Amino acid sequence: MDKAPSLPDSAVPAASVAGSATPDDLNIQSRNRHFASAPMENRYWAGGDPYGTAFFNALSVTFPKGETFFIEVLKQYRKDAPEKLAHEIGAFIRQEAVHSREHAFFNRHVEAAGYDISRLEATLAGVLDGIREMPPIYHLAATMCLEHMTAILAAEFIKNPSYFAEADEDQRNMWLWHASEEIEHKGVAYDTWLHETRDWSRWKRWTVKSVFMARISVGFAKNRARGMLDLLRQDGISGPRAMAGLARYALLSPGPFRRTIGTWFQFFLPGFHPWNIDDRDLVQLAESEYEAAVMDQHGGEETVSDMPEPRRAGKLPKVA
Fold it and tell me: Has residue 318 been placed in a domain?
């Protein structure tokens, strides 16, 4: 896999968004990595575990259209944002565009492994269509909530090596790269929300964001569970066995939902901001692991920037 030179997308002077805790020296980088030429070596690429594979495959199905939706939403607010936030929105858009592209290719590999993901895609499309029927500020509220959920899961995936310890290396690298960038831009949608609702009362702001987070979290959990069970049925795993295995994976070991419930609840507290937890060290951890993996693939003598451009896997289909 290749690492394009990192660009200081948000290296601009600080400008205030009232209530923001985003670090003044935060640098949101566009890495533009390519994983399309790395097909899955195994159907159960997550260490031979059908439940872990179903968990991440179902999550991946949401990203091409989901992140395209986030881009559409934040684009509306970039023009009128303060300078620093406008640059961060631009960096957010560049990162999310690459995530959308790479997960579209990842999902191709999921289909090539024999899975039908059309029902999962249809469910997502229905949810997004429903959100689009709401006023634009609610599009932003939904984006802010989903970005928080994505960021806390991303931090968990990097902190806990068990998720990808036995995974195919290329898939592991892709997920850790994506997770690190979700942490980097985790405050952008929230700061945009703070700026756009700056004339709202604190009560109205808290009520709207809390109602959206509660509704979206329930829908997210329900729809992802249905998607995972759909994929497991295609593996011949269904009924109580599938539900028990999925519950064990999600809640017990490794337990991503159990491990992130505390940071999820913080969203409802007065004074919440995603950057109240400064976990940029996790970005560096993911980057160092990625570079070590790539150097190992090439004999350990080249830097990541020396790696050859990867072979492309054809033209990317439209994801919007």
Answer: no
Domain count, the chain: 1
Q: Which amino acid is at 109?
A: H
Answer whether residue 39 is part of any domain.
no
Phi, psi (deg, nearest 5) at residue 172: -60, -45
Q: What is the CATH number of the domain that holds 94?
A: 1.20.1260
The residue range of the domain holding 208 is 50-301
What gap in Å lies between CA 93 and CA 297, rounded to an integer?
31
pLDDT at residue 40, rounded to an integer: 82
User: Does residue 209 fall inside a structural domain?
Assistant: yes
CA separation for the pair 114, 77 (Å, rounded): 40
pTM recorded for the entire structure: 0.86
Give the single-character DSSP code of 6.
P
* Residue 176, amino acid: L
Residue pLDDT, tens place only, 67-107: 999 999 999 999 999 999 999 999 999 999 999 999 999 99
Helix pair angle (136-159, 63-78), 10° resolution: 130
Tell me which H or E stretch contains 50. helix 50-61
Inside any domain, residue 155: yes
Whole-number Å distance between alpha carbons of 8 and 128: 32
Cα separation, 174 vs 177, whole angstroms: 5
